[in-house]
Amino acid sequence: MSVTQQQVQDVLAKVASPRGVALTNAGVLSPIAVNDGKVFFSINVDATEARTWESVRAAAETAVRAIPGVSVAMVALTAERKPGASPPSPPPSRHAQGVPNVASHRPPQGAPSPMSRQAEIPGVSAVIAVASGKGGVGKSTTALNLALGLRDLGLRVGLLDADIYGPSVPRLTGIHEKPQLNDERKMIPVMRFGLAIMSIGFLVEEDTAMIWRGPMVMSAITQMLRDVAWGTLDVLVVDMPPGTGDAQLTLAQNVPLKGAIIISTPQDLSLIDARRGLAMFKKVNVPVLGIIENMSYFQCPHCGTQSDIFGHGGARHEAERLGVPFLGEIPLHISIRTTSDDGTPVVASEPNGAHAAIYRAIAAKVRDQLKAAIAAA
Ligand SMILES: Nc1ncnc2c1ncn2[C@@H]1O[C@H](COP(=O)(O)OP(=O)(O)O)[C@@H](O)[C@H]1O
Ligand SMILES: [Mg+2]
């Protein structure tokens, strides 16, 4: 049975709003995305009204979920502050524009550090972000192989593909099935290679995800963190959207991160982006566990000879200069690319190879840095 937009409109017409009219007439709804039983939309209100609308959001979500055939309903409450409006109470985050209502995870005023102020995810010991200043530097490939390296250290590991603009984890893992729901209607992550994996790409087509507005992105990610039955995990690796814009900052601010890892290539341009990434995490008090140089040097697939076509070592120097740990370098190698693109990541498919060993060594450093960061917090 396929769910239609009209069915969603019909149930929402029965939900009352604080404006005294039906929700559908309150002028607050985003376009409604309906895709294979999954329904997504947002309620956009002024930040000053956000609190009074939370119950409406919840009622809307419950109503949509009750439609036969709906498997997932994500309703975001997005609170945008009008330009020049005085700050509501509690104060909005520094980047009020486009920040959704995440009141439950919003820091109390004067909280010392985001590490203590964001609600933890039950059962998950540590969430770490893998970030990059720009796309195409191998962030997702590294995040997945790093997650596998952490798994090889005996840790229970999850991977959340939060790159809503271009979720690539379905391709990198070869996962094409949709997550099932448990009795509490939480999504069950897909298990592959011993990892608990969740991606917005499991729920919507890549191009659907790309038209999402910032607030919906954040809300969807928050739900993927909290409305997914992650089980017991030592580490949840989050593949962040590339870049250091407002969406990324909001994410860094609202996800209970214990640390962040920056992926850079040796090129100068990419390093400038990496520096922005560092600055972003610093701003939100998330410890940077270190920098990884990807595509560090070219390794000939035939003779194994290394050539430093990109001026290898840039990230190491930069890390030293900035006083950030350097976690390791990963060569540019055809087998990393082909395994990645075939959905058989190299650490899983060639566990005894040299590349798997590199990722595992990096994973060990990440684990140690993470322990140190948690001890220092
Ligand atoms: N170390 C590497 N050697 C060879 N190819 C790589 C390496 N890292 C990533 N790639 C390839 O580069 C492309 C971009 O990688 P991806 O992980 O999707 O980047 P991002 O997530 O930063 O956009 C993919 O085709 C991937 O297979
Ligand atoms: Mg990616």
Q: What is the number of beta strands? A: 12
Shape: elongated
Rg value: 21 Å
SS-derived structural category: alpha/beta
- DSSP helix count? 13
Distinct compounds present: adenosine-5'-diphosphate, magnesium ion
Secondary-structure element pattern, one letter each:
HEEHEHEHEHEEHHEHEHEEHEHHH
The pLDDT mean sits at 83
- Low-confidence segments, ≥5 residues, pLDDT <50? 82-117
Major sheet description = 9 strands, mixed
For the termini, the CA-CA separation is 50 Å
Helix content: 25-40%
Strand fraction band?
15-25%
Q: What are the defining features of this structure?
A:
12 strands; 377 residues; nine-stranded mixed beta sheet; binds magnesium ion; 21% strand; alpha/beta; three-stranded mixed beta sheet; binds adenosine-5'-diphosphate
Overall description:
There is one protein chain. The protein has 377 residues and is an alpha/beta fold. It has 13 helices and twelve strands. It has helices spanning 5-12, 50-65, 114-117, 139-152, 169-173, 206-210, 214-226, 246-254, 268-283, 314-322, 334-341, 346-349, 354-376; strands at 33-35, 38-46, 72-80, 124-132, 157-161, 190-192, 195-199, 233-239, 257-264, 288-299, 306-307, 326-332. A hairpin with a 2-residue loop joins β1 (33-35) and β2. α4 (139-152) crosses α13 (354-376) and α7 packs parallel to α8. The radius of gyration is 21 Å and the shape is elongated. It starts with a helix and ends with a helix. Residues 82-117 have low confidence and may be disordered. The chain binds adenosine-5'-diphosphate and magnesium ion (MG). Magnesium ion binds at residues 139-140, 163, 166, 168.
